[in-house]
Design brief:
The structure is a single chain. With 183 residues, this protein is α+β, with helices and mostly antiparallel strands. The protein has a single domain, classed as Porin (Beta Barrel). Helix content is 16%, strand content 54%. The protein contains two helices and ten strands. Strands 1-2-3-5-6-8-9-10 form an eight-stranded antiparallel β-barrel. A hairpin with a 5-residue loop joins strand 1 and strand 2.
């Protein structure tokens, strides 16, 4: 009887170890901020490599505790458009917190319309929502501020909530991101 219990315990422990080892766990995220960045211009610098600049006028980052950071120059996306139409994002921005600290924000990501209707909407300058595009970023931030020093050690992920791209309808172009802190 003891041998059967020992075999059962050994098998159970082995199965538990296998299931834990194969488990992907789960990632914890917490909403950190919403960024609204107005787009100023597209500078064609090379084939499929435009630079999209951000207009600091009206652009901001608002943290979940209500603190607003101003987006400053320089802030731009050194975009690369793959031959497949996928946008490779390479964004570098500077922000200033309400208490005067400077924050460097850097993110890379991928974006593309999810279907032909969304591609048509994007091409005609229509308002894009998260359900229209695959649009995600990996965000890092650095600062010399002691108050915000924790961001130097934190990875953030972002998703586009809205994108009003350049258009001939008179709509001011902008992008709204939701940024989440990895925990």
């Amino acid at each position: 009887m003891k041998i059967i219990k020992l075999i059962f315990i050994t098998m159970f422990t082995s199965l538990l170890t296998i299931s834990v080892a194969q488990s992907d766990g789960h990632i914890k995220i917490k909403h950190f901020a919403t960024a609204k960045l107005y787009l100023k211009s597209i500078m064609p610098t090379a084939d499929r490599e435009p630079i999209v600049t951000v207009d600091p006028e009206g652009s901001y980052i608002e943290t979940t505790d209500g603190v607003k950071w101003d987006a400053l120059d320089p802030c731009a996306d050194w975009l690369y458009v793959q031959s497949t139409g996928v946008f490779n994002l390479d964004v570098r921005c500077t922000a200033k917190t309400e208490d005067g600290a400077f924050v460097k924000i850097f993110y890379k990501g991928r974006a593309y319309p999810l279907d032909d209707a969304a591609a048509e909407k994007f091409g005609t300058g229509g308002l894009m929502k998260s359900e229209d595009m695959y649009f995600y970023t990996a965000v890092t931030m650095t600062t010399m501020s002691e108050k915000y020093s924790w961001i130097n050690n934190t990875l953030f992920v972002g998703e586009m909530a809205e994108l009003q791209f350049f258009n001939d309808k008179g709509e001011r172009p902008y992008v709204i991101y939701k940024w989440y802190q990895m925990q």
